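User: Predict the complex.
Assistant: Input components as received:
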Amino acid sequence: MLELVDVHKSYVTGPVTTEVLRGVRLEAGRGEMLSIMGPSGSGKSTLMNIIGLLDRPTNGSVFLKGRELMKMSDDELSALRNVCIGFVFQSFFLLPRLTALENVSVPLVYRKWGGAAIRRRALEMLEKVGMGEHAHHKPNQLSGGQQQRVAIARALAGSPALLLADEPTGALDADTGRDIMALFLELNASEEATVIIITHDRDVARRCARRLRIQGGLLEEFTETDAR
Amino acid sequence: MLELVDVHKSYVTGPVTTEVLRGVRLEAGRGEMLSIMGPSGSGKSTLMNIIGLLDRPTNGSVFLKGRELMKMSDDELSALRNVCIGFVFQSFFLLPRLTALENVSVPLVYRKWGGAAIRRRALEMLEKVGMGEHAHHKPNQLSGGQQQRVAIARALAGSPALLLADEPTGALDADTGRDIMALFLELNASEEATVIIITHDRDVARRCARRLRIQGGLLEEFTETDAR
Ligand SMILES: Nc1ncnc2c1ncn2[C@@H]1O[C@H](COP(=O)(O)OP(=O)(O)OP(=O)(O)O)[C@@H](O)[C@H]1O
Ligand SMILES: Nc1ncnc2c1ncn2[C@@H]1O[C@H](COP(=O)(O)OP(=O)(O)OP(=O)(O)O)[C@@H](O)[C@H]1O
Ligand SMILES: [Mg+2]
Ligand SMILES: [Mg+2]
C-alpha cells in the first residue's frame, strides 16, 4: 500500500538549512494500523504531509499503491490524494465559510458523488462523531473539540484507503476520544483501510498494532517495554 | 481577585437559542491554581472568554479585582485585560505575519515597555519554553506544539496577575507538557498569580490545588474520589 524509501526533508529558513527527516523508511500494508509518537518539533507532521502527497521530500522515494510520488505531476498527485486519502489535520483546516455539513461534503464533491448521496453520507458521518445537531453551524460557532470532530467526519466520509490522522484526539475529552478511536478501528476492520495516527496520547498509541517513534529524524518501531 | 455570580451565557443561531452557562458561580483568590475539565462542547472556552473579559455574559456578574465587568466600557475592559491577564488560547491565535519573538513582544508593547527591555524579556520567555532557537521563525514555520509554546511564552511575558490557559498542553508530548506545567507553577508561586487551566489531561488537573468540572452548564468542585 505505502512505502517510504530513505526519505529526507529539509527546510531552508534564510541562511539556515534544518534537516528534519534523515532517511525515513516505512512500509505499511492494507488493513494495518500504526501510531507514530515523538517529541514536539521532531518531524511528525512533516512526515504526514509527505505520506499524504501534500509535500515532496527533499530526497528519497514515496510509493502509494505501487506508484512513485516523484514521478507524478501535481494533477496526478491531487487526483490520487482526493480518491485514496482521508486527512485529519493537526489544525483541522475547516473551511470557515462553510457549515459543518458542507465541510464534510467537500471530499464527496471531489469524488463526484451526487447531491442527495453527499448530503446523506455527510449527515451520517456527523452523527457518528456526535455532531449531528450542529450540522448547520459554521466553524466559529463550534468548540475546539467540536471542530476536531467535524474534521474527523470529513476525513472518514469517503471511506479512504489510507487515513492519516495528526493528533486526532488532542482537543477531546477521554470519553469522546475513545469514541473516535472506535470509528478508526471500524474503518480499519470493515474497509481494510490503512490507518496512521500521530499522537501524544499513550492510550491512543496502545490501541494500534504497530507503534513507531520518530527521533533524530528517523522512524523506528518500538514495543511497550521500550516506552519510558 | 475573581468572582463570578450567577453567570449565564446563551448563543443564538438562527431561530435556536442554546443556553451554555446556566448560573455559574466561582471565587478565586490570589495565588490559587484551579483546573477546569468537562466534556467537549460543555462551555469551558465560553467560560474562559467571560472570565478573561473577552466576552460578556448574557446575565450575571463578573468581578475582577473588585471591579464589575458589566459596568465597564470596552476601553476599560481592554485596559484591564492588557495589564492583568495572560491568555493561552485553545487555537493559539499567533499573529501570522510576526515572528515568534515579535508575537511574544505584543503584550509588552501594550504595557508600554521600552524596546530593549521588550526584546530581552521576550527572548527570555522563549528560552524558558525551549523555543529560543526558533525566535525568528514565523508561525507557519513552526510545528503545532512549537506554536503552542510561543503562545505560552506570550501569555507569561508580562507576569500576569491572572493566567487563563485553555488546553495549554494539548499539542505537546508528555515531557514538554511537564516543563510547561512547571512554568505555570513557578508563576503561581513566585508572583502569586491566579492560574486557571482548562484541560482534558488528568495529570495536568491533578497538579492544581482545586479541581472543577463544568457539566450541564454549571461549575462544580470535585475531588479525586469523584473522578470516574
Ligand atoms: N459563537 C457561537 N455561536 C453559537 N454557538 C456557539 C458559539 N460558540 C460556542 N458555541 C456552542 O457553545 C457550546 C460550548 O462551546 P465551548 O467552546 O465553550 O465548549 P468547550 O467546553 O470549550 O469545548 P471543547 O472541549 O471542545 O473545546 C458548544 O456546544 C458550541 O457549539
Ligand atoms: N515551513 C517550515 N519552514 C521551516 N521550518 C519548518 C517548517 N515546517 C516545520 N518546520 C520545522 O521542522 C520541524 C518539524 O516540524 P513538524 O511540524 O513536522 O513537527 P511535529 O513533530 O509535528 O511537532 P508537534 O508535535 O509540535 O506538532 C520543527 O522544528 C519546525 O520548526
Ligand atoms: Mg505536528
Ligand atoms: Mg474549548
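Helices of chain A lie at 44-51, 74-84, 100-110, 115-128, 144-157, 174-191, 202-206.
Let me know if you want any component modeled separately.
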